[in-house]
Structures are given as C-alpha cells and as structure tokens.
Amino acid sequence: MKTQARTVEIERAGVAETQAFQIKASAQAFRILSDGLYSDKILAIVRELSSNAYDAHVAANTQSRPFTVHLPNSLEPWFNMRDYGTGLSHEDVMHLYSTYFDSSKTDTNDATGMLGLGSKSPFSYTESFTVTSFFNGEQRTYLVDIGEEGVPQISLVAGFPIDTDQHNGLEIQFAVTSTDFRDFEEKAKQVYKRYNPLPEVVGVPNFELEPVEYLFEGEGWRLFKSNKSDHYAQCLVIQGTVAYPVDLNAMRNIDRESYDMLFGLNLEMDFAIGELDVAANRETLSYDERTIANLVARADKAKKEIGQQLSEKFEACETMWAARLMWTEVFGAEYDYQHPLKKLVKSLNLEIKWRDQEITQDVQVQMDDDLSMHGFNIKSSRRSRYGKRVRGRRYTKDSSYNSVTLLASTNVHLFVDDLGGAKGAASRVHRYVEDLDDSKVEVYLIQYESYSAYQAVVDSLGGAPIRNVSELDKPTRKSVSKAADGSRGNGYIFKMPAAKYNHSPGDFWTATIVDFKAGGYYLPVNRGKAHHGNGVFEGKMFEIMTIAKDLGIFDHEATPVYGIPKSAVVKLRGGWHNLFAYITAEIAKMVAANNMDESIAKTNAYQKFHNSVQRASRVEETISKLAAAVTNKSGLISKLSSLFEDHKTINNHNSLRQIARELAFTINLQEVEVVDLVDLFKQILADYPMLYWPLDQYNVPSIEDLQNLVNYVNMVDNAAEIVLDSE
Questions:
Q1: 46 has a pLDDT exceeding 90
Q2: Is residue 71 domain-resident?
Q3: Is omega for the bond preceding 505 within 30 degrees of 0, making it cis?
Q4: 97 is in which domain, residue-wise?
Q5: DSSP alpha helices (H): ranges in 526-578?
Q6: Residue 331 has what pLDDT?
Q7: Is the dihedral of CA 299, 305, 307, 310 positive or negative?
Q8: Of 22, 346, 417, 586, which residue is 20 to 30 A from 648 by alpha carbon distance?
Q9: Residues 346, 424: one domain?
C-alpha cells in the first residue's frame, strides 16, 4: 500500500545546530517492533502472514488459487502457511527479512502491506521460525530466530539450493503450544471471513466459517444480522482483506450524534487499498483528516441507502403479518427503543408503514361467546415428571385468560378447528407440539361458534398463515393399558435427544405403559433420573448409549430400553436385563476375547512416550525417516520406529475407558510387560549422542540434514561392528 507522505513547512530562526533523530538497532527496539506491537498476537500472525500471502498471489496473478494454511493439532503441532505467489530470490530473502520498515509494496495500492513488519510477526509468539522460498526452480530454507544478544537474525540452512519443480512461493512454519491450538483455529475463522477464495485450511477437521446473512446491502457497504458468535454490534471497515473497527471517539470535528446510531450497527464498509490510513500494527485505523473524510462520505451513502431500502422492503410485503415479521427481523423487540436502526430511522424522519398502516409487532385477540382458543407449548422443567411436557392453556371469555397477545414470529403456529363439532382437535394439536419438541414454538388452536367471529380474528392477524386442524394426523390410542393384576403399569421408554449437550435427566424418557411380563432391557428410574448401583446415576447417558452402539454392544435405536419406576422393579417377571449390568458384562467379555491386556499396555507405553518426551511427534517423525534410510534394519532406531507403528493403534481403548468411567467399574487387566519406548529412546541417545540436538528441534531436519544424520548413524553402527569383530 502506498504510504501517505507528509510535507511540513517550518520556519526556523536563531537555530545554531540540528540533529536528526535516529533509531538504535538494539535488542529492546527489535522486541518492541516484533513482540510489543500487537495486542492480540495470534490474530496478528494469522492476519499479517495471510495478507502477505494474498499480496504475493496478486503480484503473481494467481488470485484464483488459494494459499494453504496448516493449523496445529496434537499430532502436527505447528502452524504453516504456503503461498503460490512470486517467491523470493536468495538476495531478497536475506534483505527483506532482515530489514524492518523496508517493503517492496510501498509504491502500489494492489497490496495490503507497506511497512515490512508483517513478515516478522511470528516473533510476537516464538523465538524462531523457518522460511522456505521456492523461486524459479530452486528451493532454499532459512532459519529466522532471535540471536543470543536479542537481535533477530536470518540464516541459510544449507549452502546450496535444491532443485524443485514446485510453484514459486514462500512457506513459513513454527511450532505452537497445545494450549493455543484452539485459538489459532478461531483466529483463522475470524480473519478468513473476507477472503475469496477461502484459503485451503488443513490440520483441523471440518474447518467451516459461520455463514453471514445480510439485512441490507449496497455498493461498498453491507448491514448484516447478528449471529451466535457476535457479542455486540460493531461497525467494521474492510480495506484489502483486513477488517478494522471504527472508533467514533477518534473521529475529530464531526457531529457524533449523526453517526452514533450508524456506527452502532453491524455494518461493513468497503474501501480500496490506500483510501484509509492504518496504524503500524494494522489493528486500528489512523484517523487523519483524509481517512475521516472518506469514512464520513461512505457512511452518509450507506445511511441514505439503508433508509431507502427499509421503505422498499416493507412496501414489498404482501400482508400485514409479513410486515410484522419483517419488523421483528429488522428491529428486534418492540420495546427495544434504543435499537440503533430505530434511531437511524428517526434521524432520517422516516415513517415505516405498510400500505399507509401503522405496523405493530403484536396482536391482541379478545375472547367472546363465539370464540375461544387453546395455547400449547413445550414446557421445560426439571421438576416435572418427564423433564419436558406439553403445556396447554384454555382461553375463554369467562376465564382469567380472556385474551391472547400474539407476537409476530415464525415460531407462532396457528390452527383452526374445522372438524365440525367432532372431538379430537385439541389432542391432534397436542401431539403436533409433542412431535415438534421445540420449546421456542407456540401453537394456538382457534375454535369458534360463528364464522364472523373467526373472520374478525383472521382480519386482525393481517394474513397470518392458519392451517386446518384436519391436516394433522389423528393420535392413535396406546394398545397397552394398565392391568388390574399389576402386570402392566406406568413407565418410560428411552428416547435419545437430538442435541449432544445440555440435557436434563428427563430429556431421555417419554411416558408409556409397560408390560412387566414382556421382558427386555430396563433401567430403574425415579423422578426422571436413572439409578445405578445404590444411588442415582451421575454419568453421561448420551455418551454411554453412543459408545455402546459404536462398540456393537447395544443399539438403543434397534432395541427399546424401558425406564421402570424403582418401586415397580419388583414386579418385573422373567426375561428382563438391567442395561448397565448387561453393558458391564459385555465389556468384560470384549476385553478377554480380544486379548486387550497387551494392546492396552502398548497403547499406554505409546502415550507415556508422548507425555514424557519433548516434541514427541517431531521425534517420532524423524526416527521413522531415519529408520527408512539407515543401513542397519535391526538396530535400535529401526526397532523404535517399528514399535511406534505397532503401539499407536488405539482402536477402541479410549471408548472402553470412558464407558467404564461413566458406569464406575474397573476393567481388570493382567499385567503385561511391553517395551518401554522412553527407555529405548534414551538408549538411542546414549548410543548416538549427536542425535540429541537434531531430535530436540521444533522442525523435522531438512533433506540435507537428514542425510547427514543417516551417514552419522551408519558410521556409528559400522564402528560398533568393527569393535565386535576385533573381539
């Protein structure tokens, strides 16, 4: 991005001597420019390196090809970015990476960068990282690190380039601590919202950005809906690929009241690179006069066009009910008088109407002799018998509930009783609500004696969709009923909730009648809570049922599970199996039948290695590469590599452990001796001491270094053979 030069004219008088200011290249200065520049270091790294990658693609005319980003995970704990831009020659790498405030982008507005600081942003997180340049058929790798005196330095790892057929570009990589894995993923999602095409993100499964819905949009601006990741409304300006928050307090000499409501919206405004000045850390704007003027001009344009689109959007509604729904979507709750968009409408002197009629969000329906209603919804209650139940309420003229206030919402479902006096309308709606199982939905059944009374309700609702209750299925009667001899009685049947988290105990059970002589699988239940052993089951029902199905022990979808009241368990006759006891017995059989004593011991040894050895994943990868190349295939290195492959197959061990933990029982294992991978690794370091330093690095050795290590291992092995032969 072109920098904005300032010309300052100063009149001096009586000046005897002038000294220009300088910057001393000290460790402290470099630390401020590298580490102290950014308030959110991980966000800065992702933003700065991604901006450089994007700029490189623009320079190489490869914008349609996404650059590649590897996010850290437990097996590959590093951040890596590979672009397919121009790449850099050896001279450019050595110069640009070793010079602050020098950039190749200061004479163009096609690129986001300009200060030569973004490429050093990894120093805000780590003391070393690698840069690999692919340039005109040659590949070179560089180590960029903080030197012993605290001054950054760059080193060419090998003295000669490697021939390559890879596309030109740069690759940057550094190690990440495990506690920051999630943060890197979240910051990547934040940065890549505005990238087109989206970078190719690897290293984490199902990397997806939350879709953004827009209420209004025009040329150079968009007003979007809030989503679940938004904590508050925020106005952002987009320049290039970077989003900057607008700070109204920093905008001098403007009428703040005129823009307060606009900048309080979820508004995005686009600017071409160079139209706005930015701070050195690219976290905020630099509010000079030109930047403020450009912001105000774009804000005025957005403000005017939002007002026009608001009026057009409401006029396009086909019914008053649709206009009410639109009002709720755009302005939120009617009582939210401080909504910025409402304040914006007021400042524009707009009257939002539908076909010259005032729009209200709610409608009050008054009961009379010819009209009554039933209201239904799912009532969530930990105190209720089943955790969730359908709550119904009757609205009549003579009751305390003699009117209904309907708030316009897609969650309001309306039915009219068209059964002609036949019974069953309420039971159909009751079953409809039960099947929906959505506590947000409110369902109303309208019943009337005179059609004129019903038509008055239809008119007042303004075109709200009303369905005939005859469209709903007639509930079937349960074929099993209580028996006088006590062989049948109240109970529950297990039902797996759709959501994985935030359950109350009763979410898993639906009331039914149980035949105590039928046999099957059961759990003792009291007040919606399953019991296990001598008390209430405190484990996670969702996880147990899921794991049992995955392991092939028990499929709750194919075989019903009944909840039997604790007081009724004594009535069960033959053929009944306590489900938790059955699962426990089946797991014991599985452990014995599959000789899991040894495999679990191997898994433990593998996990011990990764818990005890620094950068264990990197060590494992290097050992495997050495084993494939060394001459002695029966040596310790080859043995350790082979054991890695044998031991790291975890199979179902973690699932078994989890279900055992939930059901509070112990998997009895025989002690089996297996090779201690940590001891074997220590023996390798003792026999090959020069491997200690390469195996303690953040990165896998380069091809050249790996070959040197192979030569070293072969030399040690040959020397050992000579000694044995001489003996």
A1: yes
A2: yes
A3: no
A4: 27-202
A5: 541-550
A6: 82
A7: negative
A8: 586
A9: no
